[in-house]
Specification:
By secondary structure, this protein is mostly helical. The protein has 14 helices and no strands.
Length: 303
């Protein structure tokens, strides 16, 4: 169970909480499809840089508002800045660029399934640094998930738009976010997740600014359609900020394990929507590989 927060308000209704969680999962699942729409007109590296910059601009006032409410916890020391910047590099700069490059070069189905391996990378890194104990059951779960990735990769051309190159970048996105999760655990417990994510997004935006400006210099923004602009705004606002706020709001009242369980719906929703909207085929290899990946993640997390 999550520890009670003495500063939280009255317990919201179960309907309200779970409605918000379902909305969060839906927003995250649709990010894979909407990202594909934006990538049709905006280069991946430019899209990633602009997304991080807008998300940073949005989360900064949230941090300043919360700092006024809890100045002691939200304050930080100068000697912590290098760690904040490292988290921004791995959790945002590398993560976001890897995600958009991968999504641009593989299918929605592969992207959503491979991103669901993030908890396995978290367990592996946490075990290496001594935060978690790697048990036989967790190893079995990891091996099962690896088997699923192997099934997905043996014939990627059978799934429309999928490629080993794109799949590799999606796995890099999952791994970089695992670094962010594991190495940010202590500093997040000390200063709160809003502080860490504010530094991550703002720091990530600053790190990516030379690349963003380079690609923006001779890019014709006037040729970008309204649909692509709305897709870009969606990617920066909903998966990056709104879902994040819902996630930590839900954790205030619901155990983390119960909130995390809803993440298994993301690949199912994303794959189904991609089949209906983009016509991505649902092959036997995709179903088998996806089932193995999700089963492996479930076994490892519950060990």
């Amino acid at each position: 169970m999550s520890e009670p927060d003495p500063h939280r308000g009255a317990q919201p209704s179960a309907l309200r909480l779970y409605s918000l969680i379902v909305l969060m999962v839906l927003f995250w699942a649709m990010n894979f499809l909407i990202g594909k729409v934006a990538l049709r007109e905006i280069p991946p590296l430019l899209l990633g840089g602009m997304r991080v910059s807008l998300a940073g601009a949005l989360i900064l006032p949230v941090y300043l508002w919360m700092r006024r409410r809890d100045p002691v916890r939200m304050n930080w020391d100068r000697d912590e800045l290098p760690r904040f910047l490292f988290l921004g590099l791995m959790g945002v700069a590398v993560n976001q660029l890897s995600f958009v490059i991968g999504l641009n070069n593989t299918s929605v189905a592969h992207s959503s399934i491979l991103m669901s391996q993030t908890p396995l990378f978290v367990l592996l890194l946490a075990g290496i640094v001594g935060q978690e104990r790697i048990t036989g059951r967790r190893v079995a779960g990891m091996l099962t998930a690896i088997g699923g990735v192997t099934v997905l990769s043996v014939a990627p051309a059978k799934t429309s738009g999928a490629s080993l190159f794109g799949d590799g970048w999606i796995l890099m996105a999952a791994l970089s976010f695992a670094f962010f999760t594991v190495f940010g655990k202590q500093i997040t417990a000390r200063h709160g997740s809003v502080t860490v994510n504010m530094f991550a997004y703002v720091g990530g935006a600053v790190m990516l600014s030379p690349l963003t400006l380079w690609y923006a210099w001779d890019f014709s923004f006037a040729q970008v359609s309204v649909k692509a602009w709305l897709s870009f705004v969606y990617m920066a606002v909903f998966p990056s900020l709104v879902c994040y706020l819902i996630f930590y709001y839900a954790l205030t009242y619901i155990p983390a394990s119960r909130v995390s369980a809803f993440s298994y719906l993301q690949p199912l929703l994303a794959t189904s929507a991609a089949a209906l909207i983009f016509g991505e085929p649902v092959t036997a290899g995709l179903v088998t590989g996806g089932a193995l990946v999700l089963t492996g993640v479930f076994i490892a997390e519950r060990a």
